Amino acid sequence: MTRAAELQLSSGRLHALRAGPDSGAPVICVPGLSANAHSFDAIAETLARAGRQVLALDLRGRGLSPATAPGTYGWRRHAEDVLEAARKLGFASFDLVGHSMGAFVSMQAAALDAGPIRRLVLIDAVGVPEPAALLPIVAAVQRLDLVYPTEEGYLALIQRQGAAEPWKALWEAHYRSDLEPVASGVRPRTSKAAVVEDMVYASQQDARSFWPSLTMPTLLVRAARPLLPGTGFVVGANLRDAFLATVSSAEGVEIDANHYGVMAHPDALRAIASFLTC
């Protein structure tokens, strides 16, 4: 079972979900662009069963973490939050797992302070996605800051878009957890302004600059299916090959799932758990 945690950081309040025994070796999980801590439910459950202490974050402006002022986002600011959260909780050493934008934040954290990061898992992000993958990512953001008449109608809309799979096993609960009631229906809590600021920031960065900082054992978990049929890969084959050739500490695993499905695929869960128990 997960339990909520509230962390007061210098940047603001950060909501998180904790799983596993408090005595377990810690793992910090960092979600993607518009995702929240529940995107790691399947991974957290797997690691908790193995005796690990798991902390899955709502980045600022996502889920139950309040939005902060314009100009306070970007990979570096989020990475500083991750490192400060670890210090607040007394994690002298921890494993770090990032999905999508969370992988960029995790690499940035390693560039800022690699010392406490024992092992690093990058889930389907190490550099610029293929152009054909960008349109579905941008489209997914458009759901934010809108009011929907019913919770079930909103969830049906997300499900019809087809990317968030497995729906029942993971993503339904994730999207449901982000909704808050308003006078005329429901709306996502996640701030569109926060997400858009991070998108603009990402467009001005080169994640490859972090690769030399990845001196700790690193696992790239790559989704071997395009984000949506007929679109592109978030980690294309050429990007995968360049990453593994450049980062000598890294190994890769291919998962027969898309960018969302990789978060609950049994092969991904086994690979992550195995890598982090070394």
Textual characterization of the structure:
The chain is 36% helix and 21% strand. By secondary structure, the chain is of the alpha/beta class. It has one domain: 3-Layer(aba) Sandwich (Rossmann fold). The strands form 2 sheets. It has an 8-stranded mixed β-sheet with strand order 1-2-4-3-5-6-9-10, with helices on both faces. Strands 7-8 form a two-stranded antiparallel ribbon. A hairpin with a 2-residue loop joins strand 7 and strand 8 (185-188).
Number of helices: 9
Q: Which parts are unreliable, with pLDDT below 50 for 5 consecutive residues or more? A: none
CATH class: Alpha Beta
Main structural class: alpha/beta
* CATH fold-level name: Rossmann fold
Which strand order do you get reading across the main beta sheet?
A: 1-2-4-3-5-6-9-10
Task: Give the strand content.
Answer: 15-25%
CA radius of gyration: 17 Å
The CATH homologous superfamily name equals: Alpha/Beta hydrolase fold, catalytic domain
Count of strand segments? 10
